[in-house]
Structures are given as structure tokens and as C-alpha cells.
Amino acid sequence: MKIDIVALKENLQYLDQYIALRNNYKDDLFTEIVTYQETRNWLQNNSIVNMIATQNKMLLGVVILYIDKKNEVTIFVKEKNKGIGTLLLKEIEKHAIKNGLTYLLSWIEESNKASKTLFIKEKYTLMHKKIKKYNNINYNGNIFKKDLYI
Ligand SMILES: CC(C)(COP(=O)(O)OP(=O)(O)OC[C@H]1O[C@@H](n2cnc3c(N)ncnc32)[C@H](O)[C@@H]1OP(=O)(O)O)[C@@H](O)C(=O)NCCC(=O)NCCS
Fold first, then answer.
1. Ligand 1, from 66, 75, 116: best to mutate by most atoms within 8 Å of Cβ?
2. What is the mean pLDDT of the chain?
3. Among 55, 84, 118, residue to substitute to test ligand 1 (most atoms within 8 Å of Cβ)
4. Which residues line ligand 1 (CB under 6 A)?
5. Domains and CATH numbers, the chain
6. Phi, then psi, of 118 in degrees rounded to 5
7. Considering the chain, what percentage of its residues have pLDDT values greater than 90?
8. How far is the CA of 20 from the centre of ligand 1 (A)?
9. pLDDT in tens, 17-63
10. Could you tell me how far CA 18 lies from the centroid of its own chain?
11. Are strands 48-55 and 125-134 parallel, antiparallel or unpaired?
């Protein structure tokens, strides 16, 4: 069955599934738990692009582009290793090019092999090390960048 990639803010019927998946990955994403109302408010922010992959009313994965955080991209999927991460990364790149962005970035924690493999496969290159503090612990990671040619 066909996989659709759509904007979450225009498809709020997926909001519960989105919040459940996101909160489930809170530690991998270095974020805090969010509520339904917080997420609805957050989706009003025009400097955030949130796209979801869906199939048969099921949420398969999410890509978020934070234009207000130097075009940082985050991805998470429900079932790993099925190509959904690749699909979402390619889609956000198309969106970025269409909207005149000239590069995308991602911060990837040192031990996150799946994410590193995905971004390197999609031609992101390692720029520099960056430590992120989360729950009072420092995590080593790297900024990966891809220049987009418009
Ligand atoms: C990172 C993540 C989004 C990748 O999504 P995915 O849908 O599993 O990725 P894909 O199936 O498109 O695979 C992309 C590539 O990574 C490889 N890969 C996937 N998991 C891997 C792992 N654990 N170790 C090494 N390589 C891995 C795949 O083999 C594939 O490469 P290939 O095409 O050469 O075979 C997913 O693992 C995830 O949701 N992780 C938890 C949240 C997270 O850490 N997100 C990163 C924040 S930036």
C-alpha cells in the first residue's frame, strides 16, 4: 500500500499517534514529554516544518525541520529499517529546496549508528563536534551538514 507524506498540522487526526511516538523516543531525541495542547500550540510556529509518513491511517514516521535552529532536522520512525527514515529525509530536502533553503543540518549523538548511517548515506558530511546537555549529562555528538543546490 502507498505511503503518503503529509504535513502534521494539516492532518491533526495523527496527533495522538505523533505524540505517543515522540514521547516514546524522548531520550533518543533529547527532549521532554509533551502534551496534546503543547503540541497543538507548537504546530502554529511557522519556523517549524513537521511532516509525517502515513499508511492506512497509521503513522510510520516523522521528520521535523527547525528553520529557527539553523535548519536542523530530526527524524524518528515507528518501525526501523524499512526505509521510512530515508524517505522522510529525501522529502524534507525537496521541501527545503522548494522554499529556498541552502543547507540542512543534523546533530547526531556519537553512539547513534542508525542516524549516522542514514545521514551519511544521504550525503551529509561531518562538520564539527558539539556537546548537548540533557538532564544534566553531557552527550558527545557531531553536526552533519548538507549543502542544497537550488
Ligand atoms: C535513525 C532512524 C530515523 C533511521 O530510520 P530508518 O527508517 O530505520 O532508516 P532506513 O530504514 O531508511 O535506513 C537508512 C540506512 O541506515 C541503515 N541503518 C538502519 N539502522 C541501522 C543501525 N542500527 N546501524 C547501522 N545502520 C543502520 C540502514 O541499513 C540503511 O542503510 P542502507 O540503505 O545502506 O541499508 C531510526 O533508527 C529512528 O527512528 N531512531 C530513533 C530516533 C533517533 O535516534 N532519531 C535520530 C535523531 S536525528
1. 75
2. 97
3. 118
4. 25, 28, 74-77, 80-86, 106, 108, 112-115, 117-118, 121
5. 4-147 (3.40.630.30)
6. -60, -50
7. 98
8. 20
9. 999 999 999 999 999 999 999 999 999 999 999 999 999 999 999 99
10. 12
11. unpaired
